Amino acid sequence: MKRRFDFAKYAPIFALIILFILSSFASPYFLKVRNLTNILRQSSYTGIIGLGMTFVIISGGIDLSVGSMVAFVGGIVILVLNYFGGGPLAITWAIIAGLGLGLIAGAFNGLIVTKGKVAPFIATLGTMSIFRSLTLYISNAGEFRSVSDIYPIIGSGYFLSVPIPVWVFFIMAVIFHILLNNTRYGRYVCAVGANEKVAVYSAIKIDWVKLMTYALTGLSVAVTSIMLSSRLNSLSSSNAGVFYELDAIAAVVIGGTSLSGGSGTIMGSVIGAIILGMINNMLNMVGVSPYLQGTVKGFVIIFAVLVQYKRKNN
Amino acid sequence: MGDPVLAAAAMIKEFSGVRVLDDINLEVSGGEIFGIIGENGAGKSTLIKIFSGIYQATSGELFLEGQKVEIKSPIVAKKLGISTVPQEFNLIGTLSVFENIFLGSELRKHLLLDKTSMKRRTIELLQELNSKFSPDALVDSLSVAQKQIVEIAKALVHDSKILIMDEPTAVLTKEEANILFSRMQSLKDKGVSILFISHKLKEIREICDRVMILRDGRQISIDRTGEIDEHEMAHRMVGRQLTQIFPPKTIGREEPALEVKSIEVSDSVHDVTFRLAKGEVLGIAGLMGSGQTELAEAIMGIGKIEAGELFIQGRQVNIRSPRHAVHEKIAYLSDDRQGKGILLNFDVPSNITLISLKDYAKILINKVKEYKSAQDYRERFSIRAASLAYELQYLSGGNQQKVYLSKWMDTHPEVLILNEPTRGIDVNAKSEIYHFVQSLAVSGIACLVISSELEEIVGLCSRVLVMRSGRITGELIGDDINEETIMLYAVGLQDTRNKDGATIQ
Predict the structure, then answer these.
(1) Predicted confidence (pLDDT) per residue in B183-224, tens digit
(2) Which domains does chain A have, with CATH numbers?
(3) Are B156 and B222 contained in the same domain?
(4) Could you tell me which chain A residue has the CA closest to the CA of B354?
(5) I want to staple B402 with a disulfide (CB 3.0 to 4.6 A). Which of A138, A269, A302, B381 is the partner?
(6) What residue in A sits closest to B352 (Cα-Cα)?
């Protein structure tokens, strides 16, 4: 019995390797440690959001509001930080407030989708507008500036020569991986995405399962907000998080998770995020106009979906 | 009969090196009804998928009216005059009946759709099929039997030379099936050849001219239906003598497991009262769509019970959700295995443990325990899968059904409701399911079997309720449990429960 090697399953990791080799030829600076850690740091912001997004997409939903939510939560984090004076205790409060707000904002999305029975695309399109508008209003369309001297340590610091956001990204990836593959909740998420009706008849509380996927995404958005705002020690109300929803969804899709739900992997989404980061980095180094980078990204996403489609039909 | 309209010579089909069809040779004449039977996985579906252009044969030749042809796609098949009524419905629920019938071959008046003509033609087709629903009705609003009619109309709208029907009667009542047969007869008289697949051997004898028996991808025999009896067909299908399809019946115990009193579900169930004892196999017979499914789902907490009372083990309960029903130790195998029962992209263990997952996980799922449990069920219910890691979509219908049964048995139910438990599965797997149900009853589980297959009700149940239009019209025991008597109640010619308000106990 012949057994064909399932290329499509390993496509993301192959793409990553090929891209790595190409990039190292394209520019002598690519392989510099500083550059590589920089790619990982850049990938971690949308990568962390991609972790939560993986759950949402597997359950059959989508969350377009994450970009605006980054600005909204990040802005509030800085306001809380400043309110408490910017010391270590203030940072603790700001982080707690940020994570809490992320959870609530995500759960709000989840409530509209489950209790309100609004299609996820529309529900989160609405909250995308709401979160951005609130952020602009609070800051009067300006910048949130932190008064703390030590807050930037989180976003800019290193631990064992690896940037802290990258550590956070990888540790969260491990936790989310276990959550998806080894817990009841993860199994239910896949079941709901695979066939919602079967899940209902199997006595699964599908509303709760779905709501939690959005809450988890809100939580990961909050982590990204903290990493991003502490890196810059400020946050622009109009620019922060713009197009993050695109990058997060792209990372998940490039990683092989089907947009129609039912199955997917955290590992794939992590690789997907790094692939996107590497593409950006390479395009920068070979001098491609930043305005064209979106075009390349767009083609990569379409290609990833095409590969998935082929896989399904074989 | 004239020259063969359709012929296959030395046809072989392999999937990644595995031979699923081996050396098939057949000739079908104009105006012949040609039956194809075999167990699930014998290769019937693969064979007709080659004829309808979905699969390509690995080797061998196909002839249409003496000409060698290659059927490269379903579109080519349609052009060549081959239409298929598929086993699983291929309809779009949000479109109307006529839009479905003309899907892909819409009639046009210049650039615009000619809806008037399409509707007129649809009404004609439906009339020919003795059906009276509106061409504007949404397919989602139709009953299963009506959807089947739409599928057939869809195949008939093209002037086909060859019509392939894959288990068209699986979801039909006897009357509906008879109407279908008379339709087939008139198509036959017009010279249309029909390839007819069914698990119901009696039908094959009734309607087909010849019958081909497949086993493990090989063609065992082709006979005129007058020259082979049902017993011999079944024997050749399984390759051994079928000892007994139905196990001996058991009588229930005294203690009631489930009691239903005057239950009402809007528009579908009216004043239903019955009592199901431990260890009993109680049947609910009736034409499809008489409220059986709604009754079962109401008990499971899916539909809303508007009035009436429910008692489980003597306690009155008000079931609010499937979760609550599971907690009360009720299990429900629905009639829609793939739509409501199993997850096709999950492997065997994760399907089996989906409801009972709590037993396998404190925080993390114990996958070893899960696998072992699946292994036990594989032995207990003889689930045939090369590996438990296979996704369910690669298992045959009968094995899917056994996984579905395992899934519910893993919740350790005391009341087991089975809705059409053997729909679309082969005679061997059917018999296995019957024996499992009987042994579960012997172990004290109360079983409620809902079925529109009278043979199944008669062979399996020690007591039978007949439903008609949402009401129970009769209760039968002993020798009264026979197909004729059940039909009298099912079609409304007899009613011992509602006339004069009398209720027999």
Answers:
(1) 888 888 888 899 999 878 888 998 999 999 998 888 999 999
(2) 30-309 (1.10.3470)
(3) yes
(4) A202
(5) B381
(6) A202
